[in-house]
Design brief:
This protein is an alpha+beta fold. It folds into 3 domains: 1-38, no CATH class; 52-97; 99-181, no CATH class. It is 46% helix and 16% strand. It contains 7 helices and 4 strands. A hairpin with a 4-residue loop joins strand 3 (163-169) and strand 4. The longest helix is centred in the middle third of the chain and has 20 residues, at 76-95. It is elongated and about 85 Å long. It starts with 6 loop residues before the first helix and ends with a strand.
């Protein structure tokens, strides 16, 4: 084996500061493979202001409910659901304003090429509270610790230190990426 490609020597040089990470990868011969295999972490910065979209939609729905409630006759049948959904949307939008975002990507390498992506804010404490409330009525949920996991993640997940999970199934050719940050 070539001494310049000895992994322990390269790691020692990297630790001592004689070479940088890029040079170490190049010496290991992994620069091309790492670029191919490295997961692409979605950019969360562009999503931070999207909470304004449900806020605006909820505000419009609340305004529609208020207008319908001021009309005479059977307009209240439209007003009550519009007000309830609109107010719930307003509260959820404001709560999710500073919450971490979850991005889920599901990709298939099959010829059909199925793809699925979703990004939305997750108000961690609200979701954990909802899971604690729903636990007795959802079979099996009371035997899990999902709410405890969410509370442990609360405050520890930031843009600088996100949680990234990649599941790559070579047999089925499916790839699932979950990014929380």
């Amino acid at each position: 084996m070539d001494d310049s490609r000895d992994p322990s020597k390269i790691l020692n040089d990297l630790e001592a500061g004689r070479i940088d990470v890029g040079r170490a990868l190049e010496q290991l011969g992994e620069s091309a493979e790492a670029a191919e295999v490295a997961p692409t972490v979605p950019a969360a910065r562009g999503w931070r202001d999207w909470w304004l979209v449900p806020l605006a939609a909820s505000l419009a729905l609340t305004a529609l409910g208020g207008w319908a409630a001021s009309r005479q006759g059977w307009w209240w049948l439209l007003a009550v659901p519009a007000l309830l959904v609109g107010i719930f949307g307003l509260v959820a939008s404001v709560i999710s304003r500073g919450s971490p975002w979850v991005h889920v990507r599901v990709r298939s390498r099959r010829p059909s090429g199925d793809r699925f992506s979703i990004s939305l804010p997750v108000p961690v404490r609200l979701v954990a509270w909802g899971l604690q409330i729903a636990g007795p009525w959802v079979p099996g949920l009371d035997r899990t610790s999902v709410d405890d996991l969410l509370m442990a993640l609360d405050g520890n997940i930031t843009e600088e230190s996100p949680l990234y999970v990649l599941v790559d199934d070579d047999e089925d050719g499916e790839r699932v990426e979950v990014y929380l940050g």
